[in-house]
Every structure is written in C-alpha cells, then in structure tokens.
Design brief:
4 domains; Recombinase family protein; alpha/beta; Rossmann fold; Zn_ribbon_recom_dom; 4-stranded parallel beta sheet; single chain; DNA binding; 5-stranded mixed beta sheet; 15 helices; Hect, E3 ligase catalytic domain fold; about 550 residues
C-alpha cells in the first residue's frame, strides 16, 4: 500500500478551523478511495500561500528527505503554493525524494495533458493571489484615507464606535474616557524620571488594570512607544492624522522618546555576541543568566554573564563570570573533551541507549502487529464457524467489523514501519557529533548544548538529546573542510535549538574534569606606568546527558 501525508492551510483569520477540517476530510476520503495510507498531517493556520515561510510546510519538505512516504496530498494545488516559481522548486525537491503532489479536488491525469493542466492551474492560482493582494491593499488604503478603523485589537486608551451616515455605517476610533487619564499619567510619570517597574507597581497598588489584566513592564514599554497617541499614524510610508484622536501632547511624547532612546539597555553590547545567551542558567536559583558589563578606571569594558538575582535580596550567592572565560571553557570542553575517543564512545553509547529506549517505549508498531494477528485469528475462527453451518446476523456484523478493523491496522502497521526505516544508528550519532565540532563556535553550541548550569566553582553542561538530531547548517566557506559523509547540505537553520527553561541539568553524569583558565590584563596608571594583572580561575566541568 502506498503512503501519503496531507498538507492543509488556510490563509487568513477570516477562515476558521472548519476550513482545515473540511480540507482534511476531503483528503482522507480521496486517500481511502485510492487505497492510500495516511502517514500524517501538516497544518499551517492563517498562513499565506504566496511564499514558503510556513513552519509546517518547511517541516514537510524536510521530512520528505527521509523518503518514508510516496505522496503529498492537498485539497487543491493552491493550498500547496500560489507562487509558481516556488512551486517548481519544491516540486523538484519532492521529486528528488520520490514524492509526488496530489490534488484531492482537481482531477489532474498523469499524462502530458495533465502536466499542461497543472501548469495552467498554478498560473491561475498565482494570478488570483496577486490580484487579491492588490485589491486588499487598495481597499485598506481607502479605509485609512477615510479615517475609518482598520480592525483588530484596539490600543489602550481608545475604543471603537460606529457612525452612521445615510445608509452606511463606518467604524471610527474614539477616546476611551476611563483609560485616557491613566494613559496620560503613564507618559507624565515616565517623562518625570520614574522607572517603568515603579510605574507598574504604582498602578498595581492603585488597582488599575489593563483591561482586566495587570500592567507589566512590557505593556508599559509598548504604550510609551506608540506615536498614534499623539494623533499621528504612520503606515507604509504614509502619514495619517485623522484616524486616531490625540490623547498625548506631541511635546510630551518627544520627551518620552528621547528618554527611551537614552536609556536603551546595552549600548555597550551592540555588535557583541554572547554565544551562550539563552543556554546559561544560575546553578543556585535556576534563573537564566544575562549579559552585564562594567568599565574600569582606565576605560576598559569588561563583559560578564550574571544571574539577575545575585545582586538582589533573594538568597542567591552566585557570582558574575567573565564572558570570555565562560565561553572559552565551554568551547574548549566541547572541541577537546567530547572528541576524545573514550568520551565520544561514552556519549554515543548513552545517547543511543536513550534513543532506542524511547523509540521502543513510544513505538506502536509492536502493538499494532499484535492486534493485527489477533484480528486475523478472530476472522479465521468466524470463517471456520460459517463453514460448519453456524451463521447468524450477528455473525455477519461481527465479521464486517473485524475486516474493517484489519484494514485500519494494516494501514497503521504500514505507517509505523515507515517510521522504523529512519532509526538512527550509533554511527549516525557519532558522525553528528564529529561534524558539529567542526562548525563555528556558536553553531556548535546551538547544536550540542541543551543547557549550562553555572556555579561559583562548577560548570554543568547538559548535552542536547532528541529523537532526531537537528540538521547542521554550515557556512559555504566551511564545507570544504568537512567530509562529504559527515555533513549533509541542509536548509533549516539552527536558531530553533533553544533550551527548556524548566529543565534541570540533573541527569546521567557522563564524565567530568578540572579546567583552569588564566586571564592577563594590563593596566596603565596616570603616571604612565603599566602593570599586568593575572587572574586564575578553576572550574570543575561536568557533562550530563
């Protein structure tokens, strides 16, 4: 039996989940009529088909590399793509993997005439999409020119009212009399020098809510940046002054804007890449480490990773760690320690053991095969009884039920067997680790490190583990230095390799070692005399899986 996956999409919030359900229902009926086993579904909600920047769409293309199914089944071709050029590229990608695209509603024959019809449909889909886009943009611009409300959530301080002129009713923006004084107070308090957290606490103490929810630092910061509160709305290079009534004087807004620009955090961090950011956590309180910096008397900027609560009254006694020290320790540990034969073998064995155990626990193949065997046996028993003359209406009904169940189980076994074809081997895991350490430091850390817990005297590195290691993105200039068998050219970047904030570094300890790091920094005094200071730091580095 051939296998397929279903791809469904709706392109706007005006469409609903029912649109998706309808597409999937039609596709499943098509699959049943054509004896296709459905191996899975990929769904993109409120996504346009004019480009391929769709999460589930990209996942489907990537999964096709496994060659575990034969077709991609869509409700119509426009659900797959309305851009004929991208359509051709992705069709080629799927074709190289032995996968064809099927349309449940468009009867396209597998012949030269079918190719012509398919091209015609793709061109019509793109024309429809571009024409609809132009009409929509023209309509929205006319709405803005008339001063009407565009729809969507309304900003705090405003409300939507409906005005009727003749037979036409238009949505207009008006000032919310209850919220406007609060909004004005927020701007005035910040302009007077109050910090945003202090404003949040003041509003909370007074019981003032943001439409039922407490104000937060982010919500106040968002409010302070909205120029539309002055009555000015900029969109797509055009300025509209008759959509939003002014609540805040322009002079007050300019004072607030200047203070925000002045207080923007981390002007010393611009252009500085904290490659461990998002993966480092305090080993005592569990909070994520942040970037910090200080300036010495001679103007040298020192950068750190710091627990945000280590300087507050919350029982955290962790210390700041110099950026270059922590990053170099982690890089050295990854490039030097895990590539040692004994450590590499230890990591590979344990990752493979976890992987196979999880697959065995999660796999339904054995259960489906067992059910299928029992169903076959039950069918044979009923057939034997019929041959012996035992036949009743309930016997016929039971036989029909078992035969339908057998078809479902056979499809399930086909799907699970396709999954089993893609099991990782120890060699896959070892090759993945070997290839990862040849990449840039940032890419290597993204791929190999799940989490780093930093203590005063110890660094715990939790290695990433997933059912399928992420593809490795390499810079074109780096590919020549890697073995062809080690790294496969990929399309997905590694930006989604983020840690689980609730995950603890506690796990199976693989190995540990002691790392000493020395920093030398010259200091020049006003007299012109220069002295070099040397600081030595020793950490215990532990690797977990």
């Amino acid at each position: 039996m051939k296998t397929c996956v279903i791809y469904a999409r709706y392109s706007s919030n005006n469409q609903t989940e029912q649109s998706i359900e309808g597409q999937i229902r039609v596709c499943r009926e098509y699959a049943k009529r054509n004896n296709l086993a459905v191996a899975g579904t990929y769904i993109d909600r409120a996504m346009t088909g004019t480009n391929d920047n769709r999460e589930q769409f990209q996942k489907m293309l990537k999964d096709s590399d496994k060659k575990a199914w034969d077709y991609v089944l869509c409700y119509k071709l426009d659900r797959f793509s309305r851009n004929k050029y991208e359509m051709a590229i992705h069709r080629k990608h799927l074709k190289d993997n032995g996968v064809k695209i099927l349309s449940a509603m468009e009867n396209i024959p597998d012949s030269p005439e079918g190719i012509l019809l398919e091209s015609l449909l793709e061109g019509m889909n793109q024309y429809y999409s571009e024409e609809l886009s132009q009409k929509t943009k023209r309509g929205l611009r006319e709405t803005r020119i008339k001063g009407n409300y565009m729809g969507g959530p309304i900003n705090y301080g405003y409300k939507v009212v409906h005005e009727t002129t003749g037979e036409q009713t238009a949505a207009k923006v008006a000032v919310n009399e209850e919220e406007a004084p609060v909004l004005l107070h927020i701007f005035e308090a910040y302009a007077a020098g109050n910090r945003i957290p202090d404003i949040v606490r003041e509003l909370d103490d007074k019981g003032v809510k943001n439409r039922g929810n407490p104000f937060t630092v982010n919500s106040i910061y968002f409010i302070l940046q909205q120029e539309k509160y002055t009555g000015v709305y900029n969109f797509n290079g055009e300025t509209f002054t008759h959509i939003y009534p002014a609540i805040i004087p322009k002079e007050l807004f300019q004072i607030v804007r200047k203070r925000i620009d002045k207080n923007k955090t981390g002007k010393h961090v611009i252009g500085v890449d904290y490659i461990l950011m998002g993966k480092c956590y305090c080993g005592y309180c569990g909070r994520q480490l942040r970037s910090a910096a200080g300036t010495t008397t001679d103007g040298t900027i020192l950068r750190y990773y710091r627990c945000p609560y280590s300087k507050k009254n919350v029982n955290c006694h962790n210390k700041s760690v110099r950026k270059e020290v922590l990053e170099q320790i982690v890089i050295d540990a990854l490039t030097n320690e895990i590539t040692k034969p004994e450590n590499n073998a230890l990591i590979t064995d344990n990752v493979f053991a976890l992987y196979t155990a999880k697959f065995t626990d999660d796999s339904d193949l054995h259960r489906y095969e067992k059910e299928l065997s029992a169903t076959d046996k039950a069918i044979k028993n009923i057939l034997t009884a019929i041959e012996e003359g035992i036949f009743t209406p309930s016997t016929k009904q039971r036989l029909t039920e078992l035969e339908e169940k057998k078809v479902r189980l056979e499809q399930a076994v086909t799907v699970e067997s396709a999954k089993e074809k893609n099991l990782l081997t120890k060699e896959d895991i070892e090759r993945y680790i070997t290839a990862a350490v040849k990449l840039s430091a940032k890419q290597m850390i993204e791929l190999l490190v799940e989490r780093i817990d930093v203590h005063v005297d110890k660094i715990c590195i939790k290695l990433r583990y997933s059912d399928t290691p992420p593809d490795i993105t390499t810079d074109p200039t780096d590919k020549d230095s890697l073995s062809d068998n080690d790294i496969k050219e990929i399309e997905q970047n590694t930006a989604n390799a983020r840690p689980d904030r609730k995950f603890s570094c506690r796990g199976f300890l693989l190995f540990s070692f002691t790392k000493e790091h020395e920093i030398s920094r010259p200091r020049t005094y006003k007299s012109g005399r220069t002295r070099t200071f040397t600081c030595s730091t020793t950490f215990i580095v532990e690797f977990y899986i």
